[in-house]
């Protein structure tokens, strides 16, 4: 396995104060805070290794373009009814079609409910789809691709940052329709070939996404012979000038994509550009750099290291799997700030002890689940309602 494809981690404990959101944008309500605490030390388990840190030289990356040389965004042409965020993009003149929004030169965002996919590549040239949205969203993604690249165009490949249901849900349907391959990191293969499920989500840590996660699946999927390993040299099939970097934590084989020429980062779920723990943020889509989606992140120390690595890239644009893209000094400064104050949730199944994975991928060991008070509360509420109904019925009969 190549230098970018595997990490050896020493399980050093993270430190820092709880993260704080960025300043609210004008006209938007402040986002409620979610209490957090510093990451506790992670115990060592003999004989279990994580992949080594990615070997990407920051000095080898090209400098950002000079001010004023970037391509301006196209004018707005419409809105995407499936994405709250597209309205904001259209208002700022950055919608490139009814179903896609401009992010950076050669990059457009397709918002599918609460998750993003990206069309990467200029119209008329080679392009790739990065992440594939939710199950049953293939038609919407195809429509966005046809509007941007032409009805007869097809991507060189589908690139998955990871295999969770909201990022790979329509990957097989899209790949079959376009007759193209799907690429992912080697450590994601067990979850994309039907050999393993992901660690169960943890709904006990509190916050909006934790409550919603009760309804989400955590199983793997079988993409058959469509799925292939990403090139060992860090190149991205069909995308010249882009490289993938290994950013584990949210999943063992999570990757992010980086274009050194103008320092554009497509980060997947290694981070988020919204506060997913806040109900208000799911409505306002206020831009802020935050940790990965908490209920599905089984290794917080690896996630902390990955955020630190991405911060060292000093991106000019940050496009994540959840939230609206961020650009300019706010993106790089916000990411550095997140890396400096990164913290795990204050409680949860994977907070004190991460899930363990086999060297070749797949779940090796899970920490025990923590008590979940919600079922008991629901049962108690049901008893109270039933008792009240029985008393009311008895009085009516009497």
Automatic annotation (TrEMBL):
Name recorded for this polypeptide: Probable metallo-hydrolase YflN
Keyword flag tRNA-binding: no
Alphabetized InterPro entries for the sequence: Metallo-B-lactamas, NDM-1-like, RibonucZ/Hydroxyglut_hydro
Pfam families (alphabetical): Lactamase_B
Matching Gene3D superfamilies: Ribonuclease Z/Hydroxyacylglutathione hydrolase-like
Bias kind Basic and acidic residues: ranges: 1-11
Organism expressing this protein natively: uncultured Rubrobacteraceae bacterium
Domain Metallo-beta-lactamase: from-to ranges: 114-322
Pro residues bias spans: 40-54, 62-75
Presence of keyword Hydrolase: yes
Matching PANTHER family: METALLO-BETA-LACTAMASE DOMAIN-CONTAINING (PTHR42951), METALLO-BETA-LACTAMASE DOMAIN-CONTAINING PROTEIN (PTHR42951:SF17)
Keywords: Hydrolase
A Gene Ontology molecular function term of the record: hydrolase activity
Region (Disordered): 1-86
């Amino acid at each position: 396995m190549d230098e970018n494809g595997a990490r050896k981690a020493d399980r050093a404990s993270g430190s820092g104060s709880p993260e704080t959101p960025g300043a609210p944008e004008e006209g938007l309500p402040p986002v409620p805070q979610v209490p957090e605490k510093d990451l506790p030390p992670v115990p060592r388990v003999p004989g279990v290794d994580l992949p080594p840190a990615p070997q990407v030289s920051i000095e080898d990356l090209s400098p950002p373009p000079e001010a004023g040389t970037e391509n301006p965004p196209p004018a707005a042409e419409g809105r995407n009814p499936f994405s709250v965020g597209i309205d904001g993009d259209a208002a700022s003149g950055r919608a490139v079609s009814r179903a896609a929004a401009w992010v950076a030169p050669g990059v457009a965002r397709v918002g599918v409910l609460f998750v993003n996919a990206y069309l990467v590549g200029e119209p008329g040239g080679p392009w790739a789809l990065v992440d594939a949205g939710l199950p049953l969203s293939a038609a919407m993604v195809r429509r966005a691709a046809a509007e941007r690249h032409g009805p007869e165009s097809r991507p060189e490949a589908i690139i998955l940052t990871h295999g969770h249901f909201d990022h790979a849900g329509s990957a097989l349907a899209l790949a079959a329709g376009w007759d193209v391959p799907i690429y992912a990191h080697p450590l994601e293969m067990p979850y994309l070939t039907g050999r393993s499920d992901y660690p169960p989500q943890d709904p006990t840590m509190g916050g909006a996404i934790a409550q919603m996660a009760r309804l989400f699946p955590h199983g793997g999927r079988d993409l058959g012979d469509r799925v292939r390993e990403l090139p060992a040299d860090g190149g991205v099939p069909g995308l010249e000038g882009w490289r993938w970097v290994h950013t584990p934590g949210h999943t063992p084989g999570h990757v992010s994509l980086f274009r050194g020429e103008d320092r554009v980062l497509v980060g997947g779920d290694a981070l988020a550009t919204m506060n997913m723990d806040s109900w208000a943020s799911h409505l306002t889509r206020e831009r802020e750099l935050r940790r990965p989606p908490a209920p599905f992140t089984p290794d917080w120390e690896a996630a902390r290291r990955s955020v630190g690595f991405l911060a060292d890239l000093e991106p000019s644009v940050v496009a994540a799997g959840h939230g609206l893209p961020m650009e300019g000094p706010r993106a790089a400064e916000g990411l550095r700030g997140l890396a400096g104050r990164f913290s795990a949730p204050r409680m949860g199944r994977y907070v004190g002890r991460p899930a363990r994975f086999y060297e070749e991928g797949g779940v090796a060991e899970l920490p025990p689940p923590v008590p979940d008070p919600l079922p008991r509360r629901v049962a108690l509420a049901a008893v109270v309602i039933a008792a009240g109904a029985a008393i009311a019925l008895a009085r009516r009969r009497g």
